[in-house]
Structure formats: structure tokens, C-alpha cells
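Two proteins, back to back. First:
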Amino acid sequence: LRRIIPGYGGLDVASLVLVVVLIMLKAVLILGIQVGGFPSGIGGQLVIYSLQELASLILNYVFWAVLIRVILSWVAPDPYNPVVRVIVQVTEPIMAPVRKMLPPMGGFDLSPLIVLLGIQLLQILFRLH
């Protein structure tokens, strides 16, 4: 799929397209099982559902990455460990702006707490619609 769909700005667009297609396929299969067929005129709703599921999946992934980073900060692992580096690369673009907005707390970093609360708020908003 990467041969057909190029990346954009360092983002692997082909993987995101594949995930959206798989979410759509899951929705069609579940709808086919529950209703017994595919109702007409549901294509737009299917796209919106798929994008909501993708956003929820990404938010869930980031939530767990931030939580793992918090736990890793308690044990102080080797910063050159590949797992630690991936966790930091995933979470730092989200936590750095929050860290800049917070006043100094005497050595305490409350940015993970703010990020986790923000992610939970976004997940609640995605579930409402």
C-alpha cells in the first residue's frame, strides 16, 4: 500500500488508510450481522464512524503511552533503550506544550496529568456523537 499512497510530512498515510478501511470493514460486518444486510444511504455515516473510531484508537494509544512514560519515570530506565525512546518520541510532542504552559512546581511535572485528563475529555466527546 505504501507504493500507491506516499507519506506526507513524516506521517505514514498508507497505514492510516489501511486502518480506516479495516474499521469500515468491521462496521459493515457488524451491521450485516445485526441487521441482516447493508442499508442504503449509510455510506457517509460509515466514513464518520470510521474517523471517530480512528481518533479514539489514536487517543487510546497516546493515553497508554503517557501512562507508561509516567511509570518509567519512577524506575529511571536506560534512556537509550529503544522502548523508552519510542515512548518519549510519541509522548513528548504532546507533553512539551503543556509543560510550557504550567508554572514551575518545584521539580514536579504535572503535564502528564493534564494530558491524561485532556485525552479522557476528548474520548468522552467522541463517544457522544
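And the second protein:
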Amino acid sequence: MTNNLLLRRAAVAAGAILVAAAEFAILHSAAGVDLAAGTGAATRQVTLAAVVVAAAVAALAGWALLAAFERGTNRARVWWTSIAVAVLLLSILVGPTSGVGGGAKATLALLHLSVGLILIFGLPRPRPEGLNR
């Protein structure tokens, strides 16, 4: 992997984390959304640290999977994008359901969607011009 590609992917991962943190700050602090998630009988507050860690884990997992595909197949972009979209859809359908209240559910869905889309569009290597795959 070239240094430029490595730096580009690191910037995309950092961007996804920063966007998640900014969305949390705006929706939680400025808009007053109480971001809480329920697990069974317990309810816990979703903190900025939890949002940052979750975005970082998603970014690193996506990056690692993409790197593994790039080493193993010449169709890495197609395979990785297909899996990433499926994971994002599952994440949006399942993750926000633990939110306590409509505002929390909508905020969690937005966080999942924004991080996922940034990673899906940002991580793969751009196709060389004239290449149809």
C-alpha cells in the first residue's frame, strides 16, 4: 500500500470519527436529545467516548477487511462494498432499536448512517480511469 493511500484512508477514518463526534455534540448538547440505550431492564447513557470508540472500531474493521480483500482478490472493491453496504443496513435496522425514545433512535440511526456512508465512499481505492470492473 502506498503512503498516499495509507494517509488517505487514515484521513477518511478520522473524518468518520470526527463527524460522529460532531453529530453527537450537536444533537445531544445543542438540540438536547437524551441519547440513551436500553439493554434488557437496564438503561445507559450513550457518551461521546462511546460514539468515538464505536466509530473508530467500525473504521478499523472496515479498513482491515478491505486490506484483506485487496491482498486476496482483484475484485476487492466489489466484494468489500457489497459487505459494507450489508453491514450498514443491518446496523441501521438493529442498532438504533435499543434507543430510548424517538430522538435517541433517530440520532443513533443518523450516527450509524453517516459513519457508514463516509467509510463506504471514502475507504476504497479510486478506480483508475478507463477501468470497468
